[in-house]
UniProtKB/TrEMBL annotation, chain A:
It comes from Aromatoleum tolulyticum. Keywords: Cytoplasm, FAD, Flavoprotein, FMN, Nucleotide-binding, Oxidoreductase. Residues 35-79 form the Rhodanese domain. Its cofactor is FAD; FMN. One of its GO terms (biological process) is tetrahydrofolate metabolic process. This is Sarcosine oxidase subunit beta. The keyword Chaperone does not apply. The keyword Nucleotide-binding applies.
From TrEMBL, chain B:
InterPro entries: SoxD, SoxD_sf. This is Sarcosine oxidase subunit delta. One of its GO terms (biological process) is tetrahydrofolate metabolic process. Gene3D superfamilies: Folate-binding superfamily. It comes from Aromatoleum tolulyticum. GO terms for molecular function: sarcosine oxidase activity. It comes from the Bacteria.
Amino acid sequence: MQHYSGFGLVKHALTYHENWQRAWRNPTPKKKYDVIVVGGGGHGLATAYYLAKEHGITNVAVVEKGWLGGGNTARNTTIVRSNYLWDEAAWLYEHAMKLWEGLSQDLNYNVMYSQRGVMNLGHTLQDMRDIHRRVNANRLNGIDGEVLDIKQIQEIVPIMDCSKHTRYPIMGASWQPRGGVARHDAVAWGFARGADALGVDMLQQTEVTGIRKSGNKVLGVETTRGFIAADTVGVVTAGNSGVLAKMAGFQLPIESHPLQALVSEPMKPILDTVVMSNKVHGYVSQSDKGDLVIGAGIDGYNGYGQRGSYSTIEHTLQAIVELFPMFSRVRMNRQWGGIVDTCPDACPIISATPVGGLFFNCGWGTGGFKATPGSGNVFAATLAAGKPHPLAAPFSIDRFISGKLIDEHGAAGVAH
Amino acid sequence: MLHIYCPHCAEYREEEEFRPKGEAHIARPVAPEAASDEEWGTYLFFRKNPRGLHHELWYHAAGCRKFFNATRDTVSYQILETYKVGQKPSVVAGQSSNKGAAK
């Protein structure tokens, strides 16, 4: 793998940047792999990378129906935080957060992780009680968090309307300084390049059309480029997880919904942190390019169409304008939708399945991006050992039978 | 914006008057106290979530405030029919599974 550095940049400038090595190969599928990862998004690529790097399993294929990082990895609003309420979730997301903090060095790829802080606003007394509870829970788990009053909020975000004259006046906020944003495409590309260098085959434009089983054991996957065998198959297909589960012959406690986001025209720097509000329901940050990156909740109906209803966008922008009246004149540039796989308890499923050798990593719903490295890390360990990583164990699919849910709905400031 | 025909109002109304309420025809276990954990968990949480035809419950929240069912394509979002609760869908997915009369 060609090492990226400042020196390399200068060197390649002499040849007009025409001789850069390709970041990954485009191999033809082998007949058999040790592990197949279905889904070439951030989580799938991270899984392949950590399988090769930490577990020495390099005979791995990532099977992707489109192009790498073209699904929700390319469609999210790039927010990273770990301030979840319940221990199990907090540990998992904090595991990811620690990996984020060294990711650019680890991958030798600038994922532009910018720890600009994440602010979750409270607008009611109950919001504030929840915020106090969550920040205390976070601190007990060693996760940074503070409760801010209006004066402190106003110092950090002077342009926000913190007056008493709004419909839902801001009463306070939780603040996680280590949170922030990252460059979403770079995360996929960095993991893909890293995994490729370790010998992983990235099979793009290869759609899985079936899962071949013998009795109750997985044999491999049928694809549009023929059958590929593997004893272990990890499915990381976000919104399409239900479709894959149906191929394997079982159901998931998941429903797929459209989640929309939008960006404005680029502007000069105006907002240097991430502001989220569950009550008026919207979140916004400003990308390094200068556009406001805006999102809110899912469309309520089930959908696989990668688009949603206009009224949802309207509600989102109403919330943003309520918080930032000065943004009312900003023009929106692009709008899109992704398919998110929402779980009843707003926590993911990282689990063995009724089919031997077949594992699922799904259900990340509206907030999977922040977990990308952690999700891949624990899922790789799960695939390598054939049993759940300790951090993944509570996220077994069995919890929907036993009732031991990890109910992060609302609790963690999960927008939904 | 979806245009949805409310079978109670017998009119097309705009999507914002309605709330989607998820999969339709989910039968509650007949004897809840006798249901196993698996039956109960399946009833509460596990869903068909099909890519294609979906029979689902809608609520006319800002209208007649009554529930009804719809058959909708989850890829194109086209609503193929709406029908009252208790009725069976007339449009069902071609082959095997999705019969609408749920488990």
